[in-house]
Amino acid sequence: MDKREVITAYRRGFITIQECGQILGIEDIRLSRLVQDSVESLKEEEQLPERFPVNSSSAE
Questions:
Q1: 37 near 7, Cβ under 8 Å?
Q2: Tens-of-pLDDT digits for all 60 residues of the chain?
């Protein structure tokens, strides 16, 4: 399972912080830093303009 998926599951309330740490195999202090970093990263991504728009047509 991807770390981002585990953190997202925690942020959405599907698992507890302890379960999140157990799945990722890290301790509480490091886990809280990881979650905080992921939140900051998401905020930065939302603020950046999309550089490469996705083209819905298929390139053949």
A1: no
A2: 788 898 889 889 999 888 888 888 887 777 777 778 887 887 777 775 655 555 555 454
pLDDT of residue 60: 43
Distances (CA, A) of 32 to 14, 24, 37: 17, 12, 9
- Contacts of 1 by beta carbon, 8 Å cutoff, 6+ apart: 23
CB 41 within 8 A of CB 17: no
Structural contact between residues 23 and 5, judged by C-beta atoms closer than 8 angstroms: no
Contacts with 23 (C-beta within 8 Å, 6 or more apart), sequence order: 1, 6, 15
